[in-house]
């Protein structure tokens, strides 16, 4: 009997839901471990408090002396809560979070005194020797160093017994070495551009904040079962495994009663989130067996991105306490739904208006339409860049099937708004007659709120869908750091809004149009120009692929093909012009993402080769030997008649041999392809070679292995099966 698999199954059958006592009133614990406004008021002097507030609201610099006071207050607050260490918490270009803990504990120079210390210097800037993070050639390990700098817009928090201070990670030559810095710059750019446009409608708007509400999908697999699968452990997904007879066909898991162990896990996870100020709200079973989802209330984008990164870490840690491995991979199992991280995005003013929500008056609706149409125009202009922003080796498996959007970026707005746009397309060029103005006000712009109320359209195959008061970027993958997609989206919208302002102003200044006439005129042209990006149909159909091609939309099915758009002149100029990233920073990210792609496929290839040869083949041979023995025995008993009697066994023996041959020859060929790819020096070429020459072997090898799984005696099969991974809980 294959011990690891069966031991794991035994472990699982003995598991009980882990007991957990939770606070009934979540509002009482929300943010208790965050150095939030309440804590700051309690632990900071009024000058220090004002300093942090100014920095958050207006980006004012905090001087060293003030930083000392802030640090002192922060330390006192943390120590009162049992904290012993602090860390600058950052998001290097690996996409995950990084931390290096230092104790508050210090000794005086002669060792005669011991104390807890934490000064402004340690709060504001640090130099972790983080030389091994990917940097895409920005910094050489032996020269330009990187440093982390405090980001006061995201509050410090306590995780375990460590005070975590959110920071940006920058090289001494000034280039961003993380995901957060370009995001902050993009948020700044969209704030500036959107505030200017808002002034057409309301002069009081001083700031526009991009908001984000992510939805985190994930799978839970029992730790013992996960540990019995080398592929899950090393690559986050199953590289082989025959599909389970029952999968998600019956839709009986989706929104079903949450399994007890999973529910207790969620309860403890949510409690942790509450302490950390992550406003989690929704939990449910997703479509695939053992797949779940968690979603918070939307927040300001920078904070939401930090919270999602932190959440993924917390999810894994709480998972350990409940004997679960949390799978964030976009496609851990073939044949059932993958996991996304839909990014619900909008813009909100400091006067409390959601710019993507239709308003009560024609003027506020014209404002809504301006932002709505400009967003569509931005996506249309930069569809390839949007695709590039979600490109990873793991997301490639997810796109285009099982409720995940395809690789073609399009925008879904629903029937009702499509009609509104059609009507606006007919607006007269230049000045509008009083009758037309009244008609627009009453019958087109004025009608939008009613129209949206009964707009129940939903399209699960759309990568970018309008959902009533926000856009949902559905193409983002579950393992992604949202900063990548959010930097792109906010940048392209910023750029587009600037363009819009320029065009409207030109019509007002040069053509003598009134403000609303000018806006209608520009929007009309945008509606005409953006038709090719709007799509309401089935994103999986072959006809859409053909149609999209005709419309000139890109369809990059693989990451190496998709990433190229990142370094197009258009993209480089966009980021440069908005001061989001200079060319070096963009090129570095492109290089890093290609390398990450190559390495992931390389690891998968090696793991697959190993499992196929060292697990599958030996097991198949063992079973084949049993069959051979059986045939020999039959021959002994039945003499020349044995061939008829042992016909099926002989057939199986041959089948097994042919699959073994299939595995061996293809693993061999894959290894050769890898060797060839490995000598390439250009990152793009290498990634392409891994994509086009190495990866195709995965499916071939897998299919031989999966067929053997169906032939071989279940009792000796070493790899935990799909039905066990997906249905044991
Ligand atoms: N119900 C859903 O929204 C499914 C979404 C799907 N899991 C995805 O990958 O995006």
UniProtKB/TrEMBL annotation:
Gene3D superfamilies: 1.20.120.1560, Glutamine synthetase/guanido kinase, catalytic domain (3.30.590.10). Pfam families: Gln-synt_C, Gln-synt_C-ter, GSIII_N. SMART domains: Gln-synt_C. One of its GO terms (biological process) is glutamine biosynthetic process. Residues 84-174 form the GS beta-grasp domain. Signal peptide: none annotated. InterPro entries: Gln-synt_C, Gln_synt_N, Gln_synth/guanido_kin_cat_dom, Gln_synth_cat_dom, Gln_synth_gly_rich_site, GS_Type-3, GSIII_N. GO terms for molecular function: glutamine synthetase activity. Residues 179-616 form the GS catalytic domain. Belongs to the glutamine synthetase family. This is Glutamine synthetase type III.
